[in-house]
Amino acid sequence: MKRILTTLTTCLCLCAQAFAAAAKPNIVIIFIDDMGYGDIGPFGATKQKTPNLDRMAAEGMKLTSFYAAPVCSVSRAQLLTGCYGARIDVPGVYSPGSAQGLNPKEHTIAERLKDLGYATMCIGKWHVGDQPEFLPTQQGFDHYFGIPYSNDMEREATETGKKVVPLLRDDKVAELLTDEQQSRIVERYTDEAVRFITEQKDKPFLLYLPHTAIHTPIHPGEKFNGKSSNGRVGDWIEEVDWSTGRVLDTLRTLAPNTLVVFTSDNGPWLIKGADSGSAGPLRGGKGSTWEGGMREPTLAWWPGKIAAGSGCDAVAGTIDLLPTAVALAGGTLPAQPVIDGRDISPILFGKTTQSPREAHYYFSGYHLQAVRQGPWKLALASQNETMGRPASPDAATNAPRLYHLDNDIGEKTDVAAANPEVVAKLTAFAEAMSREIGGSNPAARRPAGKVENPTMLYSAKPREKAAKEKRSKQQDKPKAF
Fold it and tell me: Among 49, 64, 74, 141, which residue carries the largest CB count within 10 Å?
């Protein structure tokens, strides 16, 4: 009898553990590179078709005031840690072989969820450090497959003399990809994502899918070449839509208890002309703290939990994904280290339309350039229009400029003079945050990770040497008469 009771108790415990694991939602974050606010159907795109994202919006929620950061590495660090880049000393973009990266002492979303029993995988662009200490498998991910930085950060391989980027499997270089070979990268990422979901469907998982697309150079897959009415950038957006549809279809069948968030790392790189995306009605693009540089086309999907066809304009952002995921997984965050994000699950579930944060801060590097609360955005400094394009005359001074984003989403009309009390309130917020983590002498900035004697992931010629050899070859060519 005693043995029977012991066996029964053990079975009940195992069942309870299995139920608890099953009750935890899976988390999937699809993070596009350089996609603008106006690049997908739910946010007004017409030149390229995005039926899968249209369906995702119809079945879920549009988040219309959702923010990332002006550039790649900062944006990824913010999503992974729940902190503004200035707080964790990630101000800009890391180059291949950089000595710095996201500090391994920071607690990433993968580490938080792994502690709660989640399987974790990163597929795609990492870009918060390519030294062994900084790679995904050292930052809470069980596995990694992807290009560890931007696809234009090619170097000339010593062996072949061809410009390549590395494709990693976990912490090892699996292949060196030429430009042409990048045309299969969305397809390969998608295959890996489907395989991971299939293998992990019976236990909670985190899938972080930061696509290489649609960063230049643009390389849509063969099936998508010429498919859109918007050139190759439209073609690649349509391939991203296909990829998202395949991931969602897999989840519908195998793992419907999943929160999926689709968003982008920064706005479109406008100086790329026909190869850039669109910010839609927003001003500015990648590299700027205008809305077009940081406000992203964002969708949240979770059948039965998030109301179909819903939308919310509450201010939120990538820094909120970590605390939201931890809360949904049944965990709690300690008071230290400080994070800037907040749990936005009440917004997703339709329980509130109010942001859980007092304000949102627009940093360019360590420089706080603007702050938003509700519909009000106060610009405190000169703002470039986009990366590679200087400030326009109306934004070239450091005089405070106030915009009412509900009435003026394009940030065209400065209403500071008519609203001095709003200017004073937002200035006080900005000054306090700048003292805390901005500028050159902040009170609470945590250090970046740093290694001695950094090396490339593969044998490559130094950029200076490769450039010199190229110039020499050009000079040696016979001149045409």
Answer: 74
Please identify which residue in the block is written with the tokens 């090619």. Answer: 154
Q: What is the pLDDT of residue 399?
A: 86
Hey, what amino acid is at 94?
A: Y
> Which run of H or E residues covers position 301?
strand 295-301
Q: What is the pLDDT of residue 10?
A: 44
Using the Cα atoms of residue 363, residue 368, residue 373 and residue 377 in order, give the sign of their dihedral: negative
pTM of the predicted model as reported, rounded to 2 decimal places:
0.92
pLDDT at site 465:
52
Quote the mean pLDDT of the chain.
93
Q: How far apart are CA 50 and CA 245, in angstroms?
A: 9
The CB-based long-range contact list for 466-474 (8 Å cut-off, 24+ gap) reads: 466/155, 466/156
CA 346 – CA 370 distance, rounded (Å)? 26
pLDDT(126) > 70 = yes
Which stretches within 339-458 are classed as H helix?
Answer: 345-348, 420-437
Write the single-letter amino acid at 23: A
Domains of the chain by residue range: 24-358, 362-437
Over residues 308-332, the pLDDT tens digits come to: 999 999 999 999 999 999 999 999 9
CB 353 within 8 A of CB 314: yes
- Please give the Cα distance from 143 to 121 (Å, whole number): 5
- Is CATH 3.40.50.1580 correct for 362-437? no
Three-class SS of 181-198? HHHHHHHHHHHHHHHHHH
Phi/psi of residue 348, nearest 5 degrees = -65, -35
List active site positions.
Answer: 72, 127
Q: Taking 90 as the threshold, does the pLDDT of residue 226 lie above it?
A: yes
Protein fold of 24-358: Alkaline Phosphatase, subunit A (3.40.720)
Concatenated DSSP letters of 73-93: HHHHHHHHHSS-TTTTT--S-
* Model pLDDT for residues 28-76, shown as the tens digit of each residue: 999 999 999 999 999 999 999 999 999 999 999 999 999 999 999 999 9
- Enter the tokens of residue 145: 């497959």
- State how far the Cα of 181 lies from the Cα of 196, in Å rounded to an integer: 23
One-letter identity of residue 84: Y
Beta strands in 344-476 (DSSP E): 360-364, 367-373, 376-379, 401-404, 449-450
pLDDT number for residue 463: 67
Closest listed residue to residue 238, CA positions, set 52, 71, 429: 52
The letter for the amino acid at 403 is Y
> Is there a shared CATH topology between the 24-358 domain and the 362-437 domain?
no
Determine which helix (DSSP H) or strand (DSSP E) holds 250, and give its type and residue range: helix 231-254
